[in-house]
Amino acid sequence: xxxxxxxxLRFVKxxxxxxxxxxxxxxxxxxxxxxxxxxxxxxxxxxxxxxxFATWYTLINTMSECPQTFKNYKCPFLAIQGGTDKxxxxxxxxxxxxxxxxxxxxxxxxxxxxxxxxIWHDPEIHxxxxxxxxxxxxxxxxx
Length: 143
Known about the structure:
The longest helix is centred in the C-terminal third of the chain and has 18 residues, at 125-142. By secondary structure, the protein is mainly α. The chain has a two-stranded parallel sheet. The protein has one domain (3-142): Alpha/Beta hydrolase fold, catalytic domain (Rossmann fold, 3-Layer(aba) Sandwich), CATH 3.40.50. The radius of gyration is 18 Å and the shape is flat. Helix content is 46%, strand content 8%.
């Protein structure tokens, strides 16, 4: 995150911690499945109110620091990323893959070009579940 932006965010967070922002529209850009969006809209437990500025600060700060930790990922992983994700950068998964010190046998990516952020709610989930199962099975037979 640019230093001047970080300073501005810290200033607002420390001077007005109760400051709230507009309602986020993450659901509209996360879920391609309209049935899920309708269900979330009716769900009384799905938080739809304004967010505190401190929450946004924490999210932005954490997301900007995440790539610096990729070199420390030493546990085998399968990263699943939608190519039309509007919440996080779809290219971040490739940075993780490249920077992780694991061998290629211990890390993998499933990148699906036309899937959104909430891929588990997309209609293609059944094919994706099978790919995840195959990845786990392969690792279990190698041990």
